[in-house]
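Late entry, written up from scratch paper. The run itself happened at the end of the previous shift, but nothing got recorded in the book at the time, so transcribing now.
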Amino acid sequence: MDTPSRSTERPAFPDALTPPTSSPAPAWSWTDPRVLDQLRHMGDAAADDCAAALAQAGVTAAQLRPLFGRLRAPGAMLPDDAPAPLRDFLAHIREGSRRSDKAPLPVWADRERILRGQQAFRECTLPSVLVMLCKSLPEGYAAPSMAKILNLSGELRARPFHRLMGTLQLLQDVGSPGSFEPGGVGTVVAKEMRLLHAGVRTNVARDAMGERAHDAFVAQYGVPINQEDMLGTILGFSLLVIDGLEALGIPFTPQQAEDYYHVWRVYGHLAGIRRPGLDDEADAMPATLDEARAFYATYHRHYVGPTDFSGNWRERAIAENPDGVALADAHVNMLRDVMPRWMRRLLGTSVVRIYVRDLAGDVGCARVGVEPVAGHALLKLAVEDVPRVWKRLMGKLSPNTHVKASELFFATLIKVAYDVPITYTVPRSVQDLRDFVETGARTDVLA
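Output as recorded:
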């Protein structure tokens, strides 16, 4: 294997992001930007070391894909000739758990709550995904630090349907009962995501952006896919879904909401969410939905763009966050394209934009350039009850009918884009990211 000539040493952080050393660090707070800025210094040290070592050893993404696919089989083990950095990383995860009899869950994880939260999601899957598509993802595009990374290869903007499929598979993996047991798909995908992010952070971002642009990015936003941005993303999958279901009039009960959030706290830990000053086993996310909501309100300091539709609002949104607006445009058009043909011809993107505006609000839409719909109030009357009607209809059937219907629907959609379940890997180049988006890293095609 060829050894890359470039150094894999991680750059020092610029002075603009380095906390002052003349005064003690303030006590931890989920609402203090000075404290949260510490998270922007942090990637995922163990995963970053693994990604850098794999690149230094010349291990390619194509060589790693079959190994990742193999880990998804029940009871699978890495072969003896697997790259040492990957074996060391997996050993680090195993050794980091004090709960060796029930690894890999952290000591604070509650299995009963996990199962209850996963069941709550499975009983409300389709409306939850509607919230994800029309609130969580569009709102996230308003943070340039995330939008620039998502648009790094250009493929997510060019192939937004493929990103949707990746998101659906992640939801399936995390929301399936038993997924966090030893060898469960949730534990495997969490490891894969840690290494995928590490590959982007360590191997791809600097080369894709160029030296000067990368340094400017780090000076302004911190490490690519840093701890605060990862935490904000996890809340998009949890807190924003909970709030969105309430906005649709089909809320979780308070206990279901807390249990569903607990599922994503566990996933976040397995996916590498950490905090400075805590040991590797500690819970590094807000402990309750109230704390999570307080953090997310503070995280909004990273969102840019206009907050209403006055004046040349869309031009201002493009000027402040071109990547975010481009991703939002592609996202809205993709959602239009998956609608039934008759609805697409009659309404175009109107239905999509109605749901985005109702769920993300005027501020969320304006920031990422989503146009308001003329006659919004009248059209809203025709579509706003659809999620509630679906929930009531499914509630009249046998308890697992809606679960089975949702699983079949998503499995069919994913198969349209990818012949087999998506397999992640550790990218070394922009081309690796493009291959992944195009094919889902199918081991049969790219191994």
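Residues 54-75+94-303+385-446 form one domain.
(Scratch paper discarded after transcription.)
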